[in-house]
Amino acid sequence: MLFTVFRGESPQAIRLEGPRVFLVPPRMSDWKAWAGLREESRGFLTPWEPTWPHDALGRHAFRRRLRAYNQEWRQGTGFSFLVYRLSDSTLMGGVTLSNVRRGVAQAASMGYWIGERFARQGFMSEAVSAVVEFAFEELALHRVEAACLPHNDASRSLLLKVGFRQEGYARQYLRINGKWQDHLLFEMLRDDPRL
Asked: CATH code at 43?
C-alpha cells in the first residue's frame, strides 16, 4: 500500500495520505467537528480511553490540547494527527505518536481512536499504516509500540493486520475508564513487513 507525505513550510502543513484517508495535525478550526464526533461516539470510546474530564469537549480544553500537541511537535516528542476520509474530508478519528525516544531507543508509542460510525471499515488500518510509515521513513525511528486492552478484539485485529506483533502482557499498565487495566503489548520494527 502506498502512502504519501506532503510537506509544507511548517510541521503543521504536513499531510499524510493513503488510499481512502488523509491525516493532518489538528488545528483550532477542527474543534467543532472533533467535539461533535467524540460526543456522538462517547459510549463507544469511553471503555477504551482514560476518563474524560468534565470539560473534555470544550473549546478551551481543545485549545490546551493543541498547545500541548504543538509543543511536543516542536520538541520532537510527539506527533498528533486527525484522520479524514479522502472522498469528502469528513473527520473520522485520530492517531498519535507519543513518548518519542531518541538515543539508543529510537522508538515511540502509538495510540488511536475512531468515531463509532466509521469503525470496522478499514479506515483506521490505513491511518495507522500511514503513521507507521511516517515514523519509520520521516522520523527514522526503529520501533513503534502500541497497547490495547485484552478484550478489545477490534484493536488487536487492527494491529496484527497492519504488521504489529504481540510481544507481551502488562498488568495494570494504563488507567482506562477510571481503573488500572491490563494491556496486550505490540511492536513493529522498521524492517518488519508492513501493510
From this structure: 3.40.630.30
